[in-house]
Design a protein that fits this description.
By secondary structure, this protein is of the alpha/beta class. The protein has 6 helices and 19 strands. Helix 1 links the parallel strand 1 and strand 2.
Length: about 300
């Protein structure tokens, strides 16, 4: 039987695999799409030590090959159920069992929740500026949100020659100061602060967004071909929500030791309650969780 199955191939899962292999454990990583998770769709990463500036997908491929070269087996499949008590992971065509599980499924982009969002998804509404930005080269686009992702997305799209309207519901940004300064000094980016999205409109594709001024309630319109939602993320805890204690925000409620209340089940990265959601802290979790698995199996 495999020692540990790691569900999720983002920075937490891949680092867990590296540490687990170096501790002599057999490892299977299950990943739905491609390695890296949210990291893979981040245009430029400038705060991962030693790299200064690296494209997200490149760092993802480096982490994946590091884990694979150490002997971690990576299985690209969709997990449809997890039994934390039996340490079993189910797929449409079978299942796998292990001595321990590391839950590293990360988080997925939150929806804006306005009329038109669902209707125009894939027809102008996007949740990934890195993946879809090239389709909007030189066009008018709106980025919604005020966190690091929104700031990065706005800069990425401005770099593609787009006229970017950055729509944020408050006057202060949640994202980092250096990114904010870059956004404020970019002439391709126009700030629309204190505004929420009332509706996304169009015909077959997006043509405009209606904004509501938070204070006055006044409505205005932006003619845009694309709307990039960057209003935060939600932890991917759907498969374990009835098995483990979750916080109000849906994160797995475990501490810095990454142990859940079920023996042999650990949680690492953006899926768990944390004070700081960063690649480097996800990696740290992966290392902690894999070391805890080693103790659980060998002690
Ligand atoms: P975030 O930090 O949670 O920011 C979400 C933004 O969306 C906030 O500005 C929030 O407004 C706004 N928002 C939320 N719901 C909204 C709604 N329904 N309508 C309009 N606006 C809404 O999310 P994130 O930017 O995706 O980042 C997630 C985590 O990853 C964060 O911890 C972030 O620091 C980290 N991250 C780091 C980097 C980096 O270090 N380079 C890059 C990307 C992400 P309020 O501010 O008013 O709440």
């Amino acid at each position: 039987m495999t020692d540990v199955i790691i569900i999720g191939g983002g920075p937490a899962g891949l680092t867990a695999a590296i540490y687990a292999r170096r501790a002599g454990l057999s490892v299977k990583i299950i990943e739905r799409l491609a390695p890296g998770g949210q990291m893979a769709t981040t245009p430029d990463i400038e705060n991962y030590p030693a790299f200064r500036r690296v494209e997200g997908y490149k760092l993802s491929m480096e982490m994946e090959s590091h884990a694979r070269e150490l002997g971690a087996e990576i299985i690209y499949k969709d997990v449809i159920a997890i039994d934390t008590l039996k340490k079993t992971v189910k797929f449409a065509d079978g299942s796998l069992e292990a001595r321990a599980l590391i839950l590293a499924m990360g988080a997925a982009r939150r929806k804006i929740g306005c009329p038109g969002e669902k209707e125009f998804a894939g027809r102008g509404v996007s949740y990934c500026a890195t993946c879809d930005g090239a389709f909007f080269k030189g066009k008018n686009v709106a980025v919604i949100g005020g966190g690091n992702t929104a700031l990065e997305d706005a800069l990425h799209l401005a770099g593609l020659g787009c006229k970017v309207y950055l729509v944020h519901r408050r006057n202060e940004f949640r994202g980092g100061k250096i990114l904010e300064q870059s956004v404020r000094s970019n002439t391709n980016i126009e700030l629309c602060l204190g505004q929420t999205v009332a509706e996304i409109k169009g015909g077959t594709v997006v043509e405009s967004v209606a904004l509501n001024n938070v204070l006055s309630g006044e409505q205005s319109f932006l003619n845009v071909a694309g709307v990039f939602a960057a209003v935060g993320v939600e932890p991917s805890t759907g498969l374990v929500k009835n098995q483990l204690k979750l916080t109000e925000s849906g994160h797995i409620d475990c501490g810095e030791d990454c142990r859940t209340e079920i023996e042999g089940v650990f949680a690492a990265g953006d899926i768990r309650r944390k004070p700081l959601y960063q690649i480097v802290t996800a990696c740290a979790d992966g290392a902690v969780a894999a070391t805890a698995v080693g103790k659980y199996i060998f002690d």
